[in-house]
Amino acid sequence: MASLRNRAMTAVEGLVGEIERLAPATVRDEDDALHDLRVAMRKLRSVLAAARPAFGRVAADRLREAVKEVAGALGDARDAEVLLDGLAGLAREFPDVDLSDLVERRRTVTAEAKTRAAEVLRSEAFADLMADLRSLRDAPPDGNSAKGTGGALARDLARMRRRMAAADATGLAGGERERRLHEVRKAAKRLRYDADLLVPGSGSVAAVAERMQDALGERRDLLAVAEELERGVAYRREAGDPDPRLGSLAALLVERADGRLGEYRAAAADLPD
Q1: Which residues in the chain come in under a pLDDT of 50?
Q2: pLDDT at residue number 108
Q3: Which one, 4, 36, 116, 272, has the greatest CB density within 10 A?
Q4: pLDDT in tens, 222-245
Q5: Distance, CA of 266 to CA of 249 (rounded, Å)
Q6: Other C-beta atoms within 10 Å of 257: how many?
Q7: 265 phi and psi angles, rounded to 5 deg
Q8: Could you give the CA distance from residue 264 to residue 210 in angstroms, rounded to a whole number?
Q9: pLDDT confidence of residue 57
Q10: Are residue 236 and residue 271 in the same domain, yes or no?
Q11: Is residue 59 part of a domain?
Q12: Are 149 and 2 in contact (CB under 8 A)?
């Protein structure tokens, strides 16, 4: 059986190559490049966390934080992109409701955020990060080369269950419940990535984690668009042009978001004991 270090090095090699390819594609604003770049960065952070003993904790943690900082700087652009896509999709689904002003405002915000993201990827700090990642790929630091992969998945499952329990606490509502569900979603991503990249034979676990992640991600996106519609209600009211249909659409999206909770719970029921 391959050691944790060997599996992690294989993953690192592929992910560093993905980041090298996707960073310039993101600067050029190619379709899905920003999303795929952030996914590659999340996967790399997950691998570095799971394989800390194999790479040396200090080196792994330093790189994880550097990748997290860049990925965070790209987050505003991705959030804006998701919100724009959601509003545009809603406009296509309900052509009788005029959403053009909301879409155009969000298009401007998205373009500005993408410009800032491109500046991050052209920066000296990002160039330094890429140099460090290539060094990790080409000359990894010494660590425990014999440690196996099984413990990573057990830790991920335990983390997932703790966060699920926290999100199911009695009396939770509103922002605090959504914050805890977001923590569950992050744990699902980490479980999925580690199962896919580090632990052979764990495809079924990865598939369950992906279903949980997707359901919670769709819920988050639907609620974000609903909030944007509510802001549109206030904006139009102040402008003297109220449109009650925006509020009705927002309520519909909240209803759809609640449906995603059922999908999440159905997926969670398939987690291994």
Answers
A1: 1
A2: 96
A3: 4
A4: 999 999 999 988 888 887 777 889
A5: 26
A6: 20
A7: -70, -35
A8: 10
A9: 83
A10: yes
A11: yes
A12: yes
- C-alpha torsion angle, residues 212, 214, 219, 220 (rounded to 10): 110
Structural domain containing residue 11: 1-137
The DSSP call for residue 2 is -
Question: Does residue 85 share a domain with residue 26?
Answer: yes
CA angle 141, 146, 197 (to 5 degrees): 75
- Packing angle, helices 33-50 and 57-93, rounded to 10: 150
Q: What is the DSSP letter of 269?
A: T
Q: Cβ neighbours of residue 187 under 8 Å, at least 6 residues apart?
A: 156, 159, 160, 163
**Amino acid 51: pLDDT:** 85
pLDDT at 1: 44
pTM beyond 0.70, yes or no:
yes
For residues 23 and 120, what is the distance between their CA atoms, to the nearest angstrom? Answer: 10
55 near 198, Cβ under 8 Å? Answer: no
